[in-house]
Structures are given as C-alpha cells and as structure tokens.
Amino acid sequence: MLHGDVIMDVIYAEQARIAEEAGACAVMALERVPTDIRAQGVMAKARIGQFVEAQILEAIGFDYVDESKVLTVADEDNHINKHNFRIPFVCGCRNLGEALCRIRKGVAMIRTKGEAEIGNIIEAVRHVHSIMGDIRVLRNMDDDEVFSFAKKIVAPYDLVMQTKQLGRLPVVHFAAGGVEDAMDSSSAPSSS
C-alpha cells in the first residue's frame, strides 16, 4: 500500500491533476474537496479522537483518513479506534512507542512529521532516526530484553516482538511536513 509513492497536499482540482500527472498515488484534500479529483486516492483530515468526523468522512467516500493534530484536538487522551472503520487511517508519531500504540488502535499507515509550510524537515528526520534507531537496537535484544523494552516504551509486547522480527514497522511508514523536493526525501534514512 503506497510503498515508494508520494501523497501531495492539494486545495484545487487543478493541483490534484498536476499531482497525479507527476506520479502522486493520492492527494490530501486540505480545504474543500472538488468532486473531479477522484481519479486517485483522496485523504482527508479528522481531529484526534473525533470518531464522528471520521464516520462522516468514511460515509461520503474518502479513501483514507488522516487523524491529525494539525486540526484542533478533540480528545488528547484517546485516538479514534480504527478497528470500527473499513477505511484505512494514517496517524503521526514521534517515536517507536507512539507508532506501535497507534498500530494497536488499527492504523494502516504511520507518518513522522516535520514542520509544514516552512520547509523544515528536521523534525521528520529526527523522528525517523529515533524509530529506526530503536528498531536496530530491538533487533539485537533477547526475548527478556524485548519484554522490558516494551514496558519502557509503553508499547504492546506482541507488536514490539513483531517489529523485532520484521526489522521494520508492521505498517507503511512515511515522512511528511517540510519534504519539499527529491533531495529532502533522500535525506530521510531508508528502512531497507
């Protein structure tokens, strides 16, 4: 799902057409959603914890939901339980513990995020380094150490063990925010 592809932020149908021609696999509708941008996948944002918004987005036919803190947070303690939806979700994280907790709640894609609009990719790179570094350390642990590590990062043991075995997150992992061009995307470490 979306491996090696680009998701572009768009406002207008013309931007969506340009993104599609440039090879984007999906677009993030930032404002109004013109009906004529349906050729590719369309992603829409829902506030963290606002399951009714997500139900509405699913009902009107979006292809993905981005549960995001870019919008006002509805419930800072509880993310949406994605297991109650057919539509795939993407959520942001800053570290391995957060990523695995989001995966436990049913997320299909994990995003590490920089600062959008100002071209600052450093936060996204920092978060990718943190996650990939923890996974490298995890791969060298024995089972007893994995159990303690799972407690330390407050993550489900079974997902920590699965991540150790895979050597990567068990879902698609991508970076966003401040990624402006091919050189920016090449500065993020690869999971392969």
Protein architecture, described:
The chain has 192 residues and is of the alpha/beta class. The chain is 37% helix and 18% strand. It has one domain (7-179): Aldolase class I (TIM Barrel, Alpha-Beta Barrel). A seven-stranded parallel beta sheet has the order 1-2-3-4-5-6-7. It is globular and about 55 Å long. The two termini are 16 Å apart. The mean pLDDT is 81.
Throw out a few tags for this protein:
single chain, 192 residues, alpha/beta, TIM Barrel, 7-stranded parallel β-sheet, 7 helices, 7 strands, 37% helix, 18% strand, globular, pyridoxal 5'-phosphate synthase (glutamine hydrolysing) activity
Note the topology:
Elements: E1 7-10, H1 13-21, E2 26-29, E3 41-47, H2 51-59, E4 64-68, E5 89-93, H3 96-104, E6 109-113, H4 122-139, H5 143-152, H6 157-166, E7 172-176, H7 182-187
Parallel strand pairs: 1-2, 2-3, 3-4, 4-5, 5-6, 6-7
Helix pairs in contact: 4-6, 5-6
EC number: 4.3.3.6
Keywords: Lyase, Pyridoxal phosphate, Schiff base
Pathway: Cofactor biosynthesis; pyridoxal 5'-phosphate biosynthesis
CATH architecture: Alpha-Beta Barrel
So what's the overall shape?
A: globular
Give the helix tally: 7
Alpha-carbon Rg, integer: 17 Å
CATH homology superfamily name: Aldolase class I
Number of domains: 1
Task: Encode the helix/strand succession as letters.
Answer: EHEEHEEHEHHHEH
* Major sheet strand order: 1-2-3-4-5-6-7
Class from helix and strand fractions: alpha/beta
How would you state the average pLDDT, rounded? 81
Query: Number of DSSP strands?
Result: 7
User: For this structure, what is the CATH class?
Assistant: Alpha Beta
Helix content: 25-40%
Q: Pick out the low-confidence regions.
A: none
- The portion of residues forming beta strands comes to 15-25%
Query: Can you summarize the main beta sheet?
Result: 7 strands, parallel
CATH topology, anyone? TIM Barrel
Distance between the termini: 16 Å
